[in-house]
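Case 356 in the screening queue. Each case pairs one protein sequence with one candidate compound; here the compound is flavin mononucleotide. For every case the pipeline is the same: read the inputs, emit a complex structure as C-alpha cells, and attach any notable structural observations.

Predict complex for case 356.
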Amino acid sequence: MSYEGVNRKLEHIEIALREDVEGPLTTWFECVYLIHKAVPELDLDDIDISTEFVGRRLRAPIIVSGMTGGAPETEKINAELAKVAEVLGLGLGVGSQRQAIENESLRSTYSVVREYAPTTLVLANIGISEFIRYDISLIDKIVNMVSADALAIHLNVAQELVQPEGSHSFKGFIRKLEVVMEELSVPIVVKEVGFGISKEVAEELVGVGVSHFDVAGAGGTNWAKIEMLRARYRKDKLKERLALELLRWGIPTAASILEVWTAAPNSEIIASGGIRTALDVVKALRLGASAVGLALPLLRAYYSGTLVEYLDGLVKSVKALFLLTGSRNINELRGKPIVVYDPLNTWITQRGLKIP
Ligand SMILES: Cc1cc2nc3c(=O)[nH]c(=O)nc-3n(C[C@H](O)[C@H](O)[C@H](O)COP(=O)(O)O)c2cc1C
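Case 356 output:
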C-alpha cells in the first residue's frame, strides 16, 4: 500500500464535508407524488416500518451506506455509525476494504463495526476492479473481517476512469461473479456509487443469480464532482476535464429503482443516491425498494455531532408519512396510488418500465 490509498480515503471525506458535491442532476423523486389520505383510519402506534434485507430484520428501512475505513482516523467514525445503527435497528455498510487487504494493520478500522453492531445487518464492501483481481480466499477474508451478512461490490467504473490513480480494467466481472457466488457463504449485493443501475445491467446480473441490488443513482453525492475537485487541487488538467464531462452522467435514483425493479421484481433493492428526506424514503419504498441507503448526510451529521437526532428524526418522519398515506406497513404502501410527472414519466414510457 498504499499510503496513496489511505490518503485518498481521507481526501474524499474532506472534500465531501467541505465542498458542494451533489447535483447537478436530481434524483427525480420530485416527479413522484403520493396521495394524501385525510381519513387514514390508523393510529401512529399501528405503523410498522420494519423491513428485511438478506434475512436480517431492520426496525426501520434505513441503511448507513458504505463510506469509510482504511485509515486510522476512520475507526472512530465506523464505531459511531455502528453504535447508532445497532441502537436504532438500522443496517450498516463499511467502505471499500481494499486497504485492509493491502495492510493488515488497518483491519480494525473495519472490524470495529461488528464490535459495536453485533446483531444488525452489516455489509462488507469491495470495488469491481479488486473483485475481479482477488481470489476467493481474499474475498472470504473481506467478508469475515466484519462478519458480514452480505458482500457489497461497488461498480465505480465512472469514478475509476476519472481518478488520477484509477483502474481502467473492468473485463471479466460477470464470469467472476458466477464463480464467486457458487463458493461464497453470504449473498452478494451489487451496488453503484452514484450513477445508477439500468434494466439491462440488472437483467444480466439476474441471469447469473444476483438478487440483491443497491441502485445508488444520480442526484446525491456525485463522484465526478469529487474527483474533479481532487484533480483540480493536483493540477491534473486532463483528469479534471474528464471528470467535468461526467458531471451530468448517470441514471437518476427514482428512475434506477424502476429500472432494477422491472428487471428483477423479486429481488431486494436498496435505493440510495440523494435520499435526503423522509418523503424521499417513502417514495423510494413505494417505487419498489426494500430499504434506502444514505451516505453524505450521515457523514455530515457525524461531524456535527447530530447523528442520533438526525436518524431518529428521519425514522419518526417516515412513520408519520406512512400514516398520511394510510399504510400500516411497506406492503400496504406498495398498493397506494401515485402520480408520476415528467421527465420521469417519459423515461418510464420510453424504457418500458413497470411501477410496482
Ligand atoms: C465520503 C464517501 C465515501 C464513500 N466510499 C464508498 C466506498 O468505499 N464504497 C462504496 O460502495 N460506496 C462508497 N460511497 C458511496 C455511498 O455508499 C453511496 O452509494 C453514495 O454516496 C450515494 O449516497 P448519498 O447521495 O446519500 O451520499 C462513499 C460515499 C461518500 C460520501
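Case 356 observations:
- Residues 12-13, 16, 65-67, 95-96, 125, 152, 154, 191, 193-194, 216, 220-221, 272-275, 294-296, 299 surround flavin mononucleotide (CB under 6 Å).
- Residues 307-325 form the longest helix (19 residues).
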